[in-house]
UniProtKB/TrEMBL annotation, chain A:
Gene field: pcaH
Descriptive protein name: Protocatechuate 3,4-dioxygenase subunit beta
Keywords, ordered alphabetically: Dioxygenase, Oxidoreductase
Region (Disordered): 1-28
Signal sequence bounds: none
Compositional bias annotation for Acidic residues: 1-13
Protein family per UniProt: Belongs to the intradiol ring-cleavage dioxygenase family.
Domain of life: Bacteria
Domain Intradiol ring-cleavage dioxygenases intervals: 123-151
From TrEMBL, chain B:
Lineage summary: Bacteria, Bacillati, Actinomycetota, Actinomycetes, Micrococcales
Claim: Oxidoreductase is one of the keywords in the record: yes
Keyword Oxidoreductase: yes
NCBIfam families attached to this UniProt entry: protocat_alph
InterPro entries: Intradiol_dOase_C (IPR000627), Intradiol_dOase_core (IPR015889), Intradiol_RC_Dioxygenase (IPR050770), Protocat_dOase_a (IPR012786)
Gene symbol of the encoding locus: pcaG
Similarity annotation: Belongs to the intradiol ring-cleavage dioxygenase family.
Intradiol ring-cleavage dioxygenases domain residues: 14-175
Entry protein name: Protocatechuate 3,4-dioxygenase subunit alpha
Pfam families: Dioxygenase_C (PF00775)
UniProt keyword terms in alphabetical order: Dioxygenase, Oxidoreductase
CDD domains assigned to the protein according to its UniProt record, in alphabetical order: 3_4-PCD_alpha (cd03463)
Length: 290, 185
């Protein structure tokens, strides 16, 4: 492992360092191949599968400490998370409503004068809590690359075309049954600088709130059958195959609209709840009328 | 009640949230200068002690009287409605700033705190923590979480009061003074 990982990583991901730093690492020292990374990923996967066989509990969340994702090396807590019983404020969630989000914000294909390029898709599903209750009237935010794999973000320097008709951000408020629905363009895969020839599988970033702040989550939705899954250190931060599968949408022909768009279904399950609920809250009656 | 469902895993917020998650006045729970408003600020550091330029925080807190607010409108700040929730990305020097109020105790004798969710490139899942106000030392001593921690670790959750009445509270992801992060499960 290089000694000054931080300086190297920040230049690797094209993020300007916060302060000028001594650039004492020769450039070529940063070049690690996909084979190097895959060997690390596979070794960690093997160790996990052996542990499972020996009776370990299946993991359901990404590992905070996952060295193949190089940027995580200096950015994961080294001490165990401290168990805490959530207290008053943590047992509630910020409230969002139709005042906050316009209905048209869920259509990422109508934000400019023309139609964006690429494969038009519908992504729809439900947000549920751990008891299977719908998370009603809550905020869902998404962001993604365009069909060429390019983000509008100024730090994205991937030499793929920007689509002047696609920004790649959307928002919606879940319905009474926890449902959400976005119309967008299928994002492209894109290269990044974790190692030489590193490519992210196509994905859409999702940001979700529950009924309690402890349920807050940001994650990524992937598309079925992506050949980059085994190579991607971010997807692989989740070492359990069943858990990883929960991030992959399902192609659903019943969501597909004729001569318009292909449909994908993806349901999201939040942790908890920890609070005892009343019937009214469970159906999201409160919070939307301010 | 149905059977327990397995939660969906989190993933890193990545480097490109900057055009998606921030919104106008996202870090102003009240406008700067509003009566009773304070500045909450801090810096996010990695394990090498370098500042992190690509982290984004959310705070969620009761109002000054300790009431949990359930008002909509956070995304379209009107300058008057306190919703209790804010979002603030750090700048290039790793510094975040919020304008808010001192949270009140949610029940008599409880130590007032602000709940925090932290996201960053390189951070594979969000982290939760708390920012306690420094003043009520008796309430702090009786707080169930703080009293379960070593004194050295406990300090990482208590903000400093600035001369102008604001709060300063830094986040350290690693190291001897690593911030205490929470697991609610």
């Amino acid at each position: 492992m290089p000694e000054d990982i931080n300086a190297e990583l920040e230049s690797e991901e094209l993020v300007p360092p916060a302060e000028p730093k001594a650039a004492h690492q020769p450039l070529d020292k940063a070049i690690e191949s996909q084979a190097d990374l895959s060997a690390e990923i596979n070794a960690m996967g093997e160790a996990y599968r052996r542990a499972l066989k020996d009776g370990a509990q299946p993991e359901t969340q990404p590992r905070l400490d996952y060295p193949p994702y190089r940027s995580s090396i200096l950015r994961h807590p080294t001490k165990s998370l401290q168990h805490a019983d959530p207290e008053t404020i943590e047992l509630f969630s910020p409230a969002f409503g139709h005042q906050d989000v316009h209905a048209l914000e869920s259509d990422l294909t109508i934000q400019h004068n023309g139609e964006p390029l690429g494969e038009r898709i519908i992504v729809s599903g439900k947000v549920l809590d751990g008891d299977g209750r719908p998370v009603a009237g809550q905020l869902v935010e998404i962001w993604q690359a365009n069909s060429s794999g390019r983000y509008i973000h100024k730090r994205d320097q991937h030499p793929a075309p920007i689509d002047p008709n696609f920004t790649g951000i959307g928002r919606c408020i879940t319905g009474p049954d926890g449902s959400y629905r976005f119309i967008t363009i299928k994002p492209g895969a894109y290269p990044w600088k974790n190692h030489l020839n590193a490519w992210r599988p196509a994905h859409i970033h999702f940001s979700l709130f529950g009924a309690e702040f402890t349920q807050r989550i940001i994650t990524q939705m992937y598309f079925p059958g992506d050949q980059l899954f085994p190579l991607d250190p971010i997807y692989q931060t989740i070492v359990d195959q069943d858990a990883r599968d929960r991030l992959v949408a399902t192609y659903d022909h019943s969501l597909t609209e004729p001569e318009w768009a292909l449909g994908y279904n993806w349901d999201i399950v939040l942790t908890g709840p920890k609070r005892t609920w009343t019937e009214n809250e469970a159906y999201g009656d409160a919070g939307d009328e301010e | 009640m149905s059977t327990k469902l397995v939660p969906t895993p989190g993933q890193t917020v990545g480097p490109f949230y900057g055009y998606a998650l921030p919104f106008e006045k996202d870090n102003e729970l009240l406008p700067p200068g509003f009566p009773g408003s304070i500045r909450l600020q801090g810096t996010v550091y990695d394990g090498a002690g370098h500042t992190i330029p690509d982290a984004i925080l959310e705070i969620w807190q009761p109002d000054a009287d300790g009431n949990v607010v359930q008002r909509t409108g956070s995304l379209v700040r009107d300058g008057y409605t306190f919703t209790g929730w804010g979002r603030g990305a750090v700048g290039n020097s790793g510094v975040f700033t919020f304008t808010t109020v001192n949270p009140g105790p949610t029940k008599p004798g409880a130590a007032p705190f602000i709940s925090v969710a932290l996201f960053a490139r390189g951070l594979t899942n969000r982290l939760f923590t708390r920012i306690y106000l420094p003043e009520d030392t008796e309430a702090l001593a009786n707080d169930p979480l703080l009293s379960s921690l070593d004194p050295e670790r406990r300090k990482t959750l208590i903000a400093r009061r600035d001369p102008d009445g604001g709060l300063t509270w830094d986040i350290r992801l690693q190291g001897g003074d690593e911030t205490v992060f929470l697991d609610f499960q």
